[in-house]
HD domain protein
Amino acid sequence: MRDNIAMAEEFVKTELGKDSSGHDWHHIDRVRKNARLIWSKEQQGDWFIIEMAALLHDIPDDKLNESEEAGWLKLDSFLQSIQLDSETSSRIRSCIETVSYKGGRMIELDSIEAEIVQDADRLDALGAIGIARTFAFGGKKGHPIYEPDLNIRGEMTLAEYRNGDSSSVNHFYEKLLKLKVKMNTDHARQLAEERHQFMETFLDQFYSEWNGKA
């Protein structure tokens, strides 16, 4: 199984190593570390499934590929190339299918492995790292840092979430500040609390400086 992990690492480094939107190899490795931390506390789930899903979770992401279909073909091709049995591949794929936020869609998770990987990925969208990734992604997408005339969006379709007008600061309200209460596991909820508070402190300071009051 260690050979499979090593091959997954090299595959992800090749595919995402030069990403500048906050979805690079270091993000992937942090998600794996977050998952390990949660798993060690929860004492549930198959670590091999969790680790593989954490490593591969961004490979089929539609925003990192020409299309969602192309992303899934890329993932499936890799899983076939390392000759995992069909049940193991299916479990890894199932975890990955439920990770993405995609405008806050509600999707029922069917395993503790999926819950841990989703929590691990969402933790990396919070706190200091989450702030840094938000502005990296916003810059990549051509979004302004902040535009007071842009309203915070509420309910959105996936297309609106991906392509509508927004700013990096609005993204805090449209996604990041909603994540704390969406964690699945007890330990992830504890970790999310501190990171959530850090983001609120950052926003208070941001508005103070923006308005010339700091």
Q: What stands out?
A: The radius of gyration is 18 Å.
